Amino acid sequence: MHRFPTVAIVGRPNVGKSTLFNRLIGKRHAITSEIAGTTRDKISKWWDCNGYNVLLVDTGGLENGVKEGNIEEDIQIQAKTAIESADLIIFITNIAQTLTADDFTAADILRKSEKPVILVANKCDNPNLEEQIYNIYELGFGEPIAISAIHENGVEKLQSTIEKTLKELKFKKSEKIPKKQTDEINICILGRPNTGKSSLLNNLSKENKSIVSDIPGTTRDTIDSEIIFEDQKYNIIDTAGLRRRGKIEKGIEKFGALRVLNAIERSDVVLLMMEGISQISKQDCNIAQKVLEKNKGLILVINKIDLFDDKDEKKRRIISVLRNKFDFTPWAPVIFVSAKTGENTKEIFKITKQIVKERNLHIPTPKLNSFLQKITYKHSPTGHHLRKPKFLYATQAAQSPPTFIFFFRNAKNLHFSYPRYLENELRKEYGFTGTSIVLKFKENNPKKEESKR
């Protein structure tokens, strides 16, 4: 038995699995919708169940008669994999509907797994429906726990039952939830739909963490996967494809897009995935701008090089296009990979590790000012008023991202091009490859200070 218990929430589509998952962990992590089949990939989060530290897993709906070779088949495989790896199953049904063939199919799968099962009757917020709870006995898992996941009714009783069952399974409360390691690097995979993001995650993790399909929009939620490469921990975040804002539909896709922005926020480095066989689009540049707004590290990843005819010539053309369209990120490294074959994918870890090192670079204040005095003397600050700006001193205020505060006399009169000059010179001297840097400018006018006194 492993150290921490895994509890999987299982049931047919649209019975409230994701709503219960969100209710238990106390936040809206999984996307919920009235549309059956919203959840596709299995999603997991650490959850404190009355002192028991549980890895809670939300799964796609189990269905009967799914055809081979489509997304639905992959959903079933992922759900069944979650059942196999779980210590305890929460089998959830919908009391507002009569039992279906899918409910009995799910029950048969759970019986064959021989895992302990807690039967739950969801949507018990209508007193007129409570008598229907007795129909759920037909599934053969004893008395169901009546809950309303959306209104929290009965959830406390369910949590107590889970606690009691974990105790019977000999799990202990004394262990602490594994916290994020300070040396863990968060990598977010970003891009337009169908550029190979999920394939890359599966290749890097050596598991089918995400469902892969030629159908754009297969991935709907963010999926975290911890990977160790050369003794370094990485958390890879797979995301839904980002379409142009005008094309994002309301509902599931809109929630998925919001999750993407959250994934950028908690990442250190973003991989912007693009296809080498298709044209670099304006949307790719828009996605890169979102990364810059959050001041993250950035790697431009060109996928599907296994389809290139003349690789060297094709790479030269693509780099030329990238440097033209992404002229606002000349510091972002470019890497060519094949998520399908694994060609060059391991380089992502090495480049990411170097970018994180650059993001944490600290320049001592005396050394920084000595360098800045030289470059500001070589190219004096220009302004658009009679009172010319004058550089006084600077300091590095933060790391990850590297943040610098420049003190100028008449700072508000600085020409818009001068900050770009300072950034370019800083990069020439200190690198900062692969990461955005932040420059802030403050007014420091000793004469004004004296007159106030």
List the helices and strands and how they pair.
Layout: E1 6-10, H1 17-25, E2 43-49, E3 52-58, H2 71-85, E4 88-94, H3 101-113, E5 117-122, E6 145-146, H4 155-168, E7 185-191, H5 197-205, E8 223-229, E9 232-238, H6 252-265, E10 269-275, H7 282-293, E11 297-303, H8 311-325, E12 334-336, H9 347-359, H10 365-378, E13 390-398, E14 403-409, H11 418-430, E15 438-443, H12 446-452
Parallel strand pairs: 1-3, 1-4, 4-5, 5-6, 7-9, 7-10, 10-11, 11-12, 14-15
Antiparallel strand pairs: 2-3, 8-9, 13-14
Order of helices and strands: EHEEHEHEEHEHEEHEHEHEHHEEHEH
Strand content: 15-25%
Helix content: 25-40%
Approximate shape: elongated
- Largest beta sheet, briefly? 6 strands, mixed
Q: For the largest beta sheet, what order do the strands appear in spatially? A: 2-3-1-4-5-6
Distance between the termini: 72 Å
Structural class: alpha/beta
Overall pLDDT metric: 79
Number of helices: 12
Low-confidence stretches: 29-41, 66-75, 210-220, 245-256, 449-453
Radius of gyration: 27 Å
Number of DSSP-assigned strands: 15
